[in-house]
UniProtKB/TrEMBL annotation:
This is Peptide chain release factor 2. The keyword Ribonucleoprotein does not apply. The modification N5-methylglutamine is found at residue 253. The lineage of its organism: Bacteria, Bacillati, Actinomycetota, Actinomycetes, Pseudonocardiales. SUPFAM superfamilies: Release factor.
């Protein structure tokens, strides 16, 4: 055996120990048993007699298999890395050593990301997420900023291979959007994205100001878990006002020529949801009802949490609190005001590179 740098050996042991802790929290044996049980269900010949239940089984199976593959792959990479360093020392190969160093840094980041996953243990953290973005103070700049945030989250999902569905977009008159709601279909999407709840602030030279002045604008992000059949969210039809209207796109262009878009107002709470992405009014109503159920579920969760801790941590439940600044002028920086995490590349962040902010937010929330 050839001598590997003692610091590298120590680092590899630390990485292995961290991964062992992650494996213990995730409980690999339990995860393997879940995968086996779901595979058994998926193989049943009568599975698709109930398409909704079948879809749930196949979705859960894919999620669990993916998680098992990820953690087994990390363990394999940790084991292989020690061998890679030995081979580099044996051959006195600087290129191989550099390759091993690069893999060690990548492995450190991947294990840290998996470690963050173990911190998502809330009641609804495993679920898919519904994200709503609204333009707030700042006029046309705020509407433009809201659209920038929507693109940021959709690009983040795309980078990770997570499917998304945009349910509703309300376009502003001059530029940008007044509001939008979309779904992120991925395991732990709610637990991960819920740390994005709050008011986001943009500072820049406004492209809409003919005098080139610096403007500050705001947009709000709301994240709720997708409801499941077991949630028992009862909604009385008498508590609803349902309006139908014609779908429209940016610039007033008609998506179609029928009044198929649906807006539902829940009268007791004042919650308003809408959907216009389907051609059928019935489909849009069904989707809007699902969104309403998710928002009522999150409202119930917040009320239960408020009773438990008497709102001692109001910052984590309220999405009216300013939580991140995106500064494009006079300097370049994005900074989270809760975690102090910051980067000097706003363009990369707005293109979906937000994993550092998400991980910092999840760790911060755990300490609160």
């Amino acid at each position: 055996m050839y001598d590997v740098n003692p610091d590298v050996v120590t680092d590899l042991k630390d990485l292995s120990a961290t991964l062992a802790n992650v494996e213990a929290v995730i409980d690999l044996d339990s995860l393997r048993n879940q995968v086996a049980a779901l595979e058994e269900q998926a193989a049943r010949p009568d599975l698709w007699d109930d398409p909704e239940a079948a879809q749930k089984v196949t979705s859960q199976l894919a999620h669990r298999q993916g998680e098992l593959r990820r953690i087994e792959s990390l363990r394999s990479r940790v084991d292989d890395l020690g061998v890679l360093y030995e081979l580099a020392e044996e051959g006195e190969d600087e290129d191989a050593r550099a390759e091993a160093d690069a893999e060690r840094e990548k492995l450190r980041a991947d294990i840290a990301a998996m470690e963050v996953r173990t911190l998502l243990s809330g009641e609804y953290d495993e679920r898919e997420a519904l994200v709503t973005i609204r333009a707030e103070a700042g006029g046309v700049d705020a509407a433009d900023f809201a659209e920038m945030l929507m693109r940021m989250y959709l690009r983040w999902a795309e980078r990770h291979g997570y499917p998304t569905q945009v349910y509703d977009t309300s376009y502003a008159e001059e530029a940008g959007i007044k509001s939008a709601t979309f779904k992120v279909e991925a395991p732990y999407a709610y637990g991960t994205l819920s740390v994005e709840q709050g008011t986001h602030r943009l500072v820049r030279i406004s492209p809409f100001d003919n005098q080139g002045r610096r403007q500050t604008s705001f947009a709000a992000v709301e994240v709720v878990p997708v409801t499941e059949q077991t949630d028992h969210i009862d909604i009385d039809e008498k508590d609803l006002r349902v309006d139908v209207y014609r779908s429209s796109g940016p610039g007033g262009q008609g998506v179609n020529t029928t009044d198929s878009a649906v807006r539902i107002t829940h009268l007791p709470t004042g919650i308003v949801v809408s959907c216009q992405n389907e051609r059928s009014q019935l489909q849009n109503k069904a989707t809007a009802m699902a969104v309403l159920q998710s928002k009522l579920l999150e409202r119930r969760r917040q009320e239960e949490q408020a009773r438990l801790d008497s709102l001692k941590d109001s910052s984590s439940g309220s999405w009216g609190n300013q939580m991140r600044s995106y500064v494009l002028h006079p300097y370049q920086m994005v900074k989270d005001l809760r975690t102090e995490h910051e980067v000097g590349t706003p363009s990369a962040v707005l293109d979906g590179e937000i994993d550092g902010f998400l991980e910092a937010g999840i760790r911060w929330r755990r300490t609160q």
